[in-house]
Design a protein that fits this description.
alpha+beta, two-stranded antiparallel sheet
Length: 281
């Protein structure tokens, strides 16, 4: 037989005619050479995984089908769910028993692969993490812890949150108290200009809140000199004389404009003068 008609193992050169062989990268090998050269070793028994066996692999490790077992209970893992722990393969039951969290509500194991909820070191089955009030699963929705229970936001607002006396809606964060009544910060407004008062100085009249500007414009006494409001609430200093008031900086001689604060002065009808200008009159 000519060399062109021969069909030999690429490695040992034995004829493959009428024999089982394996192709690898367009090259033929007898089964013995293929196993010696390319077969993976089983992680469990350390023997080559021959051509007549299934090669099961996980993360670059290989097993005979009959060797692919749970490291703890030795049950077969073929076509079953499993978990890995420290290079050991475990069936879901063994893994759950040794390593999985226990549900804080039902106390049962949370099986690998199942959805679970976690909060501050505690774990729950998704169906066990319930609102304390409505008993509906909270799932991925927002919730609020209260005492030893957990509440969905609508239930918490109904049961615990203060109601704003302006808009009647629940106050869930922040808020202010005025006259023993709760308000949203954005609802606590000046009765005059409707500006937000939270974080600003304000005063009241007849139980209504006012910003200092509105209160001064509406109720403060007016300066005789400049006719603008005198607001002691804003810390302004003023002079009072015969039921008339002046800003300190406005209490000046009508003629020479010298300040009369802390000095003697004279009056001439509705005018006030320094003593020098008063003598000249």
């Amino acid at each position: 037989m000519s060399s062109s008609e021969r069909f030999d193992c690429h490695y040992c050169k034995d004829s493959l005619l009428g024999k089982k062989y394996i192709m690898k990268e367009d090259t033929q090998y007898c089964t013995k050479c293929y196993e010696n050269l390319f077969a993976n070793c089983c992680e469990a028994c350390s023997l080559p995984i021959g051509c007549n066996f299934k090669d099961l692999s996980y993360k670059d490790h290989h097993w005979h089908e009959q060797c692919f077992k749970c490291a703890k209970c030795s049950r077969s893992l073929v076509e079953k769910a499993f978990a890995a722990k420290e290079d050991l393969l475990l069936c879901t039951e063994c893994y759950a028993h040794d390593y999985s969290s226990k549900c804080s509500t039902c106390k049962k194991t949370i099986m690998p692969g199942s959805r679970k909820m976690e909060y501050k070191g505690n774990s729950w089955h998704e169906t066990c993490f319930l609102c304390h009030r409505c008993q509906q699963p909270i799932g991925t929705k927002s919730f609020i812890p209260k005492d030893s229970g957990y509440f969905c936001v609508p239930c918490f607002e109904k049961q615990f949150a203060y109601q704003c006396c302006a808009c009647k809606k629940a106050i869930t964060t922040g808020g202010v108290t005025y006259q023993d009544k709760p308000w949203h910060r954005e609802c606590f407004l000046c009765i005059g200009c409707r500006k937000q008062l939270s974080g600003h100085r304000f005063t009241s009249r007849e139980n209504y809140p006012y910003c200092l500007e509105c209160f001064s414009n509406l109720y403060a006494k007016k300066c005789v000199g400049c006719t603008k409001p005198i607001s002691s609430l804003a810390g302004a200093k003023y002079i009072s004389f015969e039921e008339r008031q002046w800003h300190s900086e406005c209490f000046t001689c009508i003629q020479c404009s010298v300040s009369l604060v802390g000095r003697g002065f004279l009056t001439q009808r509705d005018d006030i003068l320094c003593t020098d200008c008063g003598r000249e009159k």
